[in-house]
Design a protein that fits this description.
The protein has 121 residues and is an alpha+beta fold. 31% of the residues lie in helices and 35% in strands. It is built from 4 helices and 7 strands, in the order αβαββαββββα. The chain has a 7-stranded antiparallel beta sheet. A hairpin with a 2-residue loop joins strand 4 and strand 5. The longest helix is centred in the N-terminal third of the chain and has 21 residues. It is globular and about 40 Å long. The chain starts with a helix and ends with a helix. The mean pLDDT is 87.
């Protein structure tokens, strides 16, 4: 499990590096709460999944308008885990909903997400 989490971290670090250094249209946004996401129109712009749990915090996303790539993460309160997962379709430890793919770390209540490029294009 630790190897998988390390690989996920390295993947997102690499994507972050590529987006910030090689794609001039890349933008990084951080939100402290779901309320901030709504105020800054993160969901409306398609950068944050619509099914974000109400308890989500430490929300961050990087998007590149030119490539339609979105990657991000958020933490959530334990009590929202069951309802959040109920709205997702699971396939081989990766969850999917509304054009986003999710990797859920239940032990740390952390979700990494990215948009499903196949559904964007």
């Amino acid at each position: 499990m630790k190897k998988i989490l390390l690989m996920i971290f390295i993947f997102f670090l690499a994507v972050y590096f590529l987006l910030t250094n090689y794609f001039p249209n890349a933008e990084i946004n951080r939100y402290d709460s779901v309320e901030t996401v709504y105020k800054q129109k993160g969901i409306e712009n398609g950068w944050i999944p619509k099914n974000l749990p109400l308890s989500a915090y430490d929300i961050a996303e990087t998007h590149d308008i030119g490539s339609d790539t979105v990657v991000g993460k958020f933490s959530y309160a334990e009590e929202d885990e069951k309802s959040f997962l109920a709205g997702l379709k699971e396939s081989n430890e990766v969850y999917e909903a509304e054009g986003f793919l999710f990797k859920v770390d239940r032990e740390h209540n952390l979700v990494n997400f990215r948009n499903d490029i196949k559904k964007v294009n």
